[in-house]
Amino acid sequence: MNSLIGEAPAWRLDDPQAIGALVAGRHGDPFSVLGPHAGPAGIVLRVLRPEAETAEAVDPDTGKILGKLLRRHARGFFEGLISDGNTVPRYRLRFTREGDVWDEEDAYRFPSTFGELDLHLIGEGRHRRLYQKLGAHPMRCDGVSGTRFAVWAPNARRVSVVGNFNGWDGRRHQMRFHPGVGVWEIFVPEVGAGDLYKYEIIGRHGELLPSKADPIGFRSEVPPATASVVHGLPGHGWSDEGWMEGRAAANDRTAPISIYEVHLGSWRRREDGSYLTYDELADQLIPYVKDLGFTHIECMPVSEHPFSGSWGYQPIGLYAPTSRFGSPEDFARFVDRCHGEGLGVIIDWVPAHFPSDAHGLARFDGTALYEHEDPRLGFHRDWNTLIYNFGRREVANFLTANALFWLDKYHVDALRVDAVASMLYLDYSREPGDWIPNIHGGNENLDAIAFLRETNITLFSDYPGATSIAEESTAFNGVSRPVYAGGLGFGFKWNMGWMHDTLDYMSRDPVHRRHHHDQMTFGLLYAFTENFILPLSHDEVVHGKGSLIGRMPGDRWQKFANLRGYFTFMWTHPGKKLLFMGGEFAQEREWNHDWGLDWHHLDDPMHAGVRDLIRDLNGIYRGEKALHALDCESDGFEWIDASNPDISTFVYLRKGGDEARPVVIACNFTPVVREDYRIGLPRPGRWREILNSDDPRYGGSGVTNGAVDAIEEPWHGRPASVTLRLPPLGALILSCET
């Protein structure tokens, strides 16, 4: 069939402006022109292939020419009839250039893969599984393998997917737009896993924007490279059914929760200084954490981030585990192996803000799309980052779906939400006049509050065994209370006040501690207003703060004794526990994300003693119901004696309910041994010292008690009492045997 009869056939596109826009890569609706279209003379095919000299459509089975295409523009616009009927035949495109011949599929012959319901939910901001539709998804369409690309950019004039498969040429794959929803999509045949891509966007004013990484990309290049990598949803075969069935109990407020916080890039390095992979971390980190008796591993943000010095707290790829350590499947396998060893996995999640890198979300389609236009609402001066517009339904949906994504596709057990305080307050770290009050004239960010509540409701509804944790440093009411009770709905909250007060107390010379006694007791005034976690996190060992051991006063022996006593106080205080890596063996150097931990410290008995103490504290915390079952209830704690500031002693009782044996803790935060120190006890009989931080096994001086017999002599308002030797700068734990 000759498809080029006549100089101006009726099927020819007579719209120079449209052709010009296409070859310039600036056509807002390319599918209205390109691909096969029915007309009076039959099926006309229009193709844009900028570098081709000739083009024709051929039968994919026989190679028969269905139609030669006329080159209508020198920059590669071709057009011609391929059938005189009304049905589009199966075809492939054949091109030539300087003697080279190649065949390929035509991206513009494939229909939209979006259904009306998906588009409706996306437009409404209610698509909980947004990641199943947006992003790059390898798939088959009409029997052809390829990848569907979809991105939200409602204010763009044109969006193209560019990559190594099309020479990064924005003219080649200009995308289909769904008006009213703001989504652009295209199925690109013969593109698959491993191909690199970005989105090339023309803004609403015709400006060419910096190429953007995919906001819902599932894999990225290894930084500092910035392209997204075609991958699709992770395809790990999970083997953690037993863990998933029982994890609700492991995450419960009555459970012993002891968290090892880790920065995967600097926990340990290879001899050449390079990173361990996810698999190597699983081989080494998991048995280490399990041996020390922790219940959970908390990973600092694993979402892809361009700058390693941000530790992950300025992410670009919220849906992509960082490629620094391996593939998405490698990270999934790491989580699976944690579960296989009985360890929960918490990841730090950063919905508060995002960096302004040109390839990221900043002015994504040429407008303030994910952020606020007004810097008084949309810019963090502290971190030079942009604040999400939580009041925009599509943005809130993007973030909530991301929270669900980690629980769904990576079986993560909890999200620790970073910088919640910065989300809650419009005047956070701002001077008067540098912020905009809410509609009631207050400083609460009502949109952020609504977003957090909705995310927590959805999280606990869809994944009832999982939980959420807020890093929130203010006295905002009800952070870990249910939404139906007026709270934000988090499962737990970091107790930043406890950390600041007690760490400040411990950093003082013992001679001055008598004047700051209330720093150790004040936390009990509010300890049960929230479900608290006691955090000694990475924030306490950076930015010139030094290490935990470095903040302890006195000579070397006293520093270690202080730290051991402090850890014992922490592990017996109401609240779940969190310790940043290196603290468990008293690393002396301030943490540096570019180096591994100082593992040689464990050759020193003093450092090894602290590690052994942590192991024993975790074992006792998990084994003694009195130390964890009522962590979040006032019924689980009583002061026995907290009124001795002159000698800096504290004695208290932990209870775990009627079936749990009581546990008593006595602390002495002076370097003076307290002989014949009488304390009141809830019952007479044999009490055993189940831990003493001054035990020689931990590097202590050996002021211990062993088993003691309490007599029926009232003391401290209790029916029984016993005399003890309180160790210098130490603490002991007594458990009732009868």
TrEMBL record:
Protein keywords: Carbohydrate metabolism, Glycogen biosynthesis, Glycogen metabolism, Glycosyltransferase, Transferase
Domain Glycosyl hydrolase family 13 catalytic residue range list: 261-615
EC number(s) on file: 2.4.1.18
Signal peptide extent: none
Catalytic site positions: 418, 471
Pathway(s) the chain acts in: Glycan biosynthesis; glycogen biosynthesis
Cross-referenced Pfam families: Alpha-amylase (PF00128), Alpha-amylase_C (PF02806), CBM_48 (PF02922), GlgB_N (PF22019)
InterPro entries: A-amylase/branching_C, Branching_enzy, GH, GH13_cat_dom, GlgB, GlgB_N, GlgB_N_E_set_prok, Glyco_hydro_13_N
Gene3D superfamilies listed in its UniProt record: Glycosidases (3.20.20.80), Golgi alpha-mannosidase II (2.60.40.1180), Immunoglobulins (2.60.40.10)
Swiss-Prot/TrEMBL catalytic activity: Transfers a segment of a (1->4)-alpha-D-glucan chain to a primary hydroxy group in a similar glucan chain
Recorded family membership: Belongs to the glycosyl hydrolase 13 family. GlgB subfamily.
Subunit text: Monomer.
Free-text function comment from the UniProt entry: Catalyzes the formation of the alpha-1,6-glucosidic linkages in glycogen by scission of a 1,4-alpha-linked oligosaccharide from growing alpha-1,4-glucan chains and the subsequent attachment of the oligosaccharide to the alpha-1,6 position.
Xref: PANTHER family: 1,4-ALPHA-GLUCAN-BRANCHING ENZYME
Protein name per its UniProtKB record: 1,4-alpha-glucan branching enzyme GlgB
Organism in which the protein naturally occurs: Phyllobacterium phragmitis
Gene encoding the protein: glgB
